[in-house]
Amino acid sequence: MNGHAYHTAPRVAIVTGASKGIGHDIALRLADDGLDVTINSRNAAELEMVANEIRAKGRKVVAFVGDVSDEEVVKGMVDKTVEVLGRLDVMVANAGIFVSSPVIDMDIKDWNRCMNCNLASTMLCYKYAARQMIDQGEGGRIIGASSILGKKGAPDSSAYVATKFAIRGLTQCLAIELAPHNITVNTYAPGVILTPMSCQ
Predict the structure, then answer these.
(1) d(Cα 128, Cα 132) in Å, to the nearest integer?
(2) Sign of CA dihedral 58, 59, 64, 68
(3) Is residue 160 flagged as an active site residue?
(4) From the candidates 60, 127, 151, 160, which is the catalytic residue?
């Protein structure tokens, strides 16, 4: 022991877009690693199935249904997590959608929906997780979902690509801002993985 006082309660994570695909597997892995988890999606039935998987691993879970492109939803999700699970140590802003269209045919409504679901939701998760972790004063981990398409463009995917490039830039900015608080901010950038979204 080096004299530092560490909290003994389990660490706590939030995973958005956790009802299926990559988010589902991240949530289960965090539970396997001993974290209690708040899971989020817009589908209550699917979310409850994941919650049961986490409970079966002996971890506490909060199933929080809502659209994380809505600021009040994200604030409520973080508040509920702290109220029920006691703290917040890890935020995984994973929720996202894919819009397929060449630029010349892009519908601005589809473009804005992608910007909100992917980019605005990530910013809001970063914002409220960062506030909570700063208040706790014990550091933390914030992680966002970029993509291989956040590094190189591809046809018929401009809206999605734009959000994933932007998430990398947003993440780098927040990492600099939070470094004094011992909070790391990173993205992961998977290639094509067979999930319900990629199989649409």
Answers:
(1) 6
(2) negative
(3) yes
(4) 160
**6 classed as catalytic:** no
Query: Does residue 122 sit in helix, strand or coil?
Result: helix
75 CA to centre of own chain: 14
Give pTM, 2 decimals.
0.92
Name, in order, each residue with C-beta under 8 angstroms of 64's C-beta and a sequence gap of 6 or more.
38, 39, 40, 47, 76, 77, 80, 81
User: Residue 90 gets which letter from DSSP?
Assistant: E
- As a whole number of angstroms, the distance between CA 137 and CA 179 comes to 12
151, 171 contact by CB (below 8 A) = no
Contact 95, 141 (CB under 8 A): no
Tokens of 84: 């029920």
Q: Are 159 and 121 in contact (CB under 8 A)?
A: no
Read off the pLDDT of residues 105-144 as tens digits, 9 standing for 90 and up. Answer: 999 999 999 999 999 999 999 999 999 999 999 999 999 9
- Catalytic position from the list 75, 128, 151, 164: 164
Helix axes 21-32, 44-56, angle to 10 degrees: 20
